[in-house]
Write a structure and sequence with these properties.
The complex is a heterodimer of chains A (about 300) and B (about 290).
Chain A lengths: L2 H17 L10 H26 L26 H8 L2 H32 L5 H14 L6 H10 L6 H5 L6 H12 L3 H9 L4 H9 L4 H17 L2 H6 L8 H11 L4 H19 L3 H9 L5
Helix pairs in contact in A: 2-14, 3-14, 4-8, 4-11, 5-8, 8-11, 9-10, 11-14, 11-15, 13-14
Chain B lengths: L7 H27 L2 E3 L6 E3 L3 H7 L2 H32 L6 H13 L2 H11 L6 H8 L14 H26 L3 H9 L4 H12 L1 H16 L3 H7 L10 H11 L3 H25 L5
Antiparallel strand pairs in B: 1-2
Helix pairs in contact in B: 1-13, 2-13, 3-7, 3-10, 4-7, 5-7, 5-11, 7-10, 8-9, 10-13, 12-13
Classes of the chains: A mainly alpha (about 300), B mainly alpha (about 290).
C-alpha cells in the first residue's frame, strides 16, 4: 500500500469519524473499557510509584508499607534524600555522565552517518542500491545485535578497544532502523524543492544541510529519540566491553549494584529511578514522534 | 571542485555502511566461523576445532536443558504477550474522553529499560516482604516464593518481560488498527455484522500482516531475553530460568569458553533465521 493511499484513507477515516460520533471501535461499553484501562494503568504505575517512593525512603523502611501492603507504599511518607546522596558519594554521577556523553555522541555522529545513508537510499539511483539495501540494511536489521556480541567483542579486542570510549561508542553508531526511518522520510520530499537548489548550483551536501534538514524536524526528532534512548538503555554491550569502573554506564552500574550492595534497596531503586527518568522525560513531550520511530518499520 | 556525480551516493553511504559491515555483518558471519575454534579468553589461545564445540554442547545436558527452558518460555510468553497486546491496542483505540492520557501512561514501560524493570519487579516479587506478597497476604493468600521457586521463577520472568512487552507490541497493533479505514467496518455493520463478527471477519484478517510482524519480532526479542536472568536468578533455581542467551553469556564470559558459547550462538542464529524465513514466507506475495 503506498503512502498516499494510506494518507488518503486516513483522511477519509478522520472525516468519517467526525461525521459519525460512534465509529466501529466504540461498540465496547465505555464503562468496561475504562475499568480495563484502569486495571492496566495500576499494573503499569504501581511498580514505578512504589520504586520512586521507596527511593526517597530510609533503607530500613523500604518494605514497611509494601508488606503488609498499604497505600502509603506509593508515597514517600518518610521522605529522605539519603539514598541519592549516598549514590552520588559512590560515584554514580560519573555513570550518569558517561551515559549522557555516549547517548549524545551517538545521536550526533551516528545521526549524521545514518542520515547520509538514508538520503542516498531515499534520493539517489545508483548501481548496487537494491543489493546493498537488502544485504546490509535488511540483514543487519533482522539479526539482533546481542546475538553477534561475542565475535564483535573479539574484533574490538583486536583493535585494542576494550575499556575505551571507541569500544563503547563506535560499534553502535550505525543503525539500520534509523537509516530506514531517514530513507522513508527523504524519499517523500518533493523533487522540485531539490531541483531548484541544484539549478542554483548548490552542492548535494549543501542541499542536504540547508534545504532538507530544516524541513526534516519530525524524522530528526524521531531518529534522535530512538538513538538516544536505545543507547541510554543499552546494557549487554557496555557490560562486555567496558567493565572498568570509570567507564561504566548507568545500566551497568545499577546491574552491578544488585550484587555489590544488594540489600541497600533504597539506593538500588534510586539508581533505577535515575536510569528511568531520563528516557521518560524525553519520550513524554515527543510521544507521537517516538511511537512513529518505533513502529515505523514494522508496517512496511 | 565538483565530484563525479556517480560517486556521490556511495560517499554518502560509506560511513554508515562500513560501520554496519564491520560491526554487524562481519560478526554475524564470524559467529559461525568462531564456533569452529576453541578460544580461551584467559590464555588467548585460539585453535581450530572443527565441530568439537558442537559436539561438546550437543552432549551437554545443561545446553539441552537451557534450550528446553527457552522453548517453554517462548511458547508461554509470546502468545500471552500478543494476546494481551491485541486487547490493549483495542482498548486504547477507543474514541473515548481521556484516552490520550491512558495512551501516554502505557508508554512509560516502553521508555524504561529492562534492567530497571527487572530490579523494580525483583523487589516487588521478593519472597519475604515484596509488595505482591503484601497484597496476597491481605487477601488471605499465603506468601509465594516467586523467583526462588522452580515452579514460579519462569512465570515471574514472564511477568517482568510482559510489563514492557505488552504495551510495546500493542503500539504496533494500534498502528495497524488505525490503518483500517472506518468505511470498511461501517459497511460490515450495515450488512448486519455484529461487533464480534466484524472483529473476527474484518479486523483480524486486516491485521494479519501486523500480527505476523509482531509475532516474529516478539519471538526473536524474547528468544534473547537476558537482563532479568542475569540480575535476578542467574539461571536458577535448578536451571529453571536458564534461558539460552544467559547460558551463552555464562559459558563465554564467566567460564571463558568462547568456543562453546559461539557454537550456541550459531545454533541461535540458525533458529532466528528460520523464524525470519517463516515470516517472509507468511508475508510473501502481499503488497
Amino acid at each position: 500500500m503506498s503512502e498516499q493511499t494510506v494518507a488518503r484513507q486516513r483522511a477519509q477515516g478522520d472525516a468519517y469519524a467526525k461525521k459519525n460520533a460512534r465509529p466501529f471501535t466504540a461498540y465496547l461499553q465505555p464503562s468496561i473499557v475504562y475499568i480495563l484501562l484502569i486495571i492496566g494503568v495500576i499494573i503499569v504505575v504501581v511498580p514505578l510509584m512504589w520504586a520512586a517512593a521507596a527511593s526517597f525512603t530510609p533503607n530500613h523502611k523500604v518494605f514497611e508499607y509494601a508488606y503488609p501492603f498499604s497505600w502509603r507504599a506509593l508515597f514517600p511518607v518518610d521522605f529522605t534524600m539519603e539514598a541519592y546522596d549516598n549514590l552520588l558519594e559512590r560515584g554514580f554521577g560519573r555513570a550518569v555522565g558517561n551515559s549522557f556523553f555516549l547517548a549524545i555522541a551517538t545521536v550526533i555522529i551516528g545521526g549524521a552517518a545514518n542520515a547520509l545513508a538514508g538520503f542516498a537510499f531515499g534520493r539517489f539511483e545508483f548501481r548496487g542500491k537494491q543489493f546493498l539495501f537488502l544485504s546490509v540494511i535488511m540483514l543487519t536489521f533482522m539479526v539482533p545485535v546481542d546475538l553477534t556480541a561475542i565475535p564483535r567483542y573479539i574484533l574490538v579486542n583486536n583493535f585494542g578497544w576494550i575499556n575505551t570510549w571507541q569500544g563503547l561508542l563506535v560499534p553502535g553508531l550505525a543503525n539500520s532502523l534509523v537509516i530506514f526511518l531517514f530513507r522513508q522520510f527523504f524519499a517523500e520530499i518533493p523533487q522540485e524543492l531539490i531541483d531548484a537548489a541544484r539549478v542554483d548550483g548548490a552542492s548535494w551536501l549543501r542541499v542536504l544541510v540547508s534545504i532538507i534538514m530544516p524541513i526534516s524536524k519530525p524524522v530528526l526528532v524521531a531518529a534522535g529519540l530512538l538513538m538516544f534512548i536505545s543507547q541510554w538503555n543499552s546494557f549487554f554491550w557496555p557490560l562486555l566491553i567496558a567493565p572498568r569502573q570509570e567507564m561504566r554506564v548507568v545500566q551497568v552500574e545499577i546491574s552491578l549494584a544488585i550484587g555489590q550492595y544488594g540489600t541497600i534497596w533504597n539506593e538500588l531503586l534510586a539508581g533505577s529511578m535515575i536510569a528511568a527518568i531520563v528516557p521518560i522525560l524525553l519520550v513524554m513531550p515527543f510521544q507521537r514522534y517516538y511511537v512513529q520511530a518505533i513502529t515505523g518499520t514494522g508496517l512496511e | 571542485m565538483r565530484l563525479n556525480r556517480q560517486l556521490i551516493p556511495y560517499l554518502f553511504l560509506a560511513p554508515a555502511l562500513l560501520l554496519l559491515i564491520i560491526f554487524n555483518l562481519v560478526p554475524t558471519i564470524a559467529t559461525l566461523v568462531e564456533s569452529t575454534f576453541i578460544l580461551s579468553l584467559r590464555s588467548g589461545e585460539r585453535v581450530f576445532a572443527g565441530f568439537a564445540n558442537y559436539n561438546r554442547i550437543f552432549n551437554d545436558p545443561v545446553f539441552w536443558k537451557s534450550l528446553q527452558v527457552t522453548i517453554v518460555f517462548s511458547l508461554l510468553v509470546n502468545p500471552i504477550q500478543i494476546f494481551l497486546a491485541l486487547c490493549l491496542s483495542i482498548l486504547i483505540n477507543q474514541k473515548l474522553p481521556g484516552i490520550g492520557v491512558f495512551r501516554s501512561i502505557y508508554l512509560l514501560p516502553i521508555a524504561v529499560s529492562l534492567n530497571v524493570t527487572a530490579i523494580v519487579w525483583g523487589l516487588m516479587l521478593d519472597q519475604n516482604s515484596g509488595m505482591i506478597n503484601g497484597i496476597l497476604t491481605q487477601w488471605g493468600i499465603a506468601r509465594q516464593p516467586f523467583l526462588h521457586s522452580v515452579d514460579q521463577a519462569l512465570w515471574s520472568i514472564i511477568v517482568i518481560a510482559s510489563w514492557i512487552g505488552v504495551p510495546l507490541w500493542s503500539l504496533f497493533i494500534l498502528a495497524g488498527l488505525q490503518n483500517i479505514p472506518p468505511p470498511v467496518l461501517e459497511a460490515a455493520k450495515i450488512d448486519g455484522a455484529n461487533s464480534w463478527q466484524s472483529f473476527t471477519k474484518i479486523t483480524l484478517p486486516l491485521l494479519r500482516r501486523v500480527l505476523a510482524f509482531v509475532l516474529v519480532a516478539d519471538t526473536v526479542a524474547n528468544f534473547l531475553m537476558f537482563a532479568p536472568i542475569l540480575l535476578l536468578t542467574n539461571g536458577g533455581p535448578q536451571l529453571s530460568t536458564n534461558l539460552i542467551m544467559y547460558e551463552t553469556y555464562r559459558r563465554g564470559f564467566l567460564y571463558g569458553d568462547l568456543g562453546a558459547s559461539s557454537a550456541m550462538l550459531s545454533v541461535m542464529l540458525v533458529i532466528v533465521f528460520v523464524i525470519i524465513g517463516v515470516e517472509l514466507y507468511v508475508l510473501r506475495g502481499q503488497d
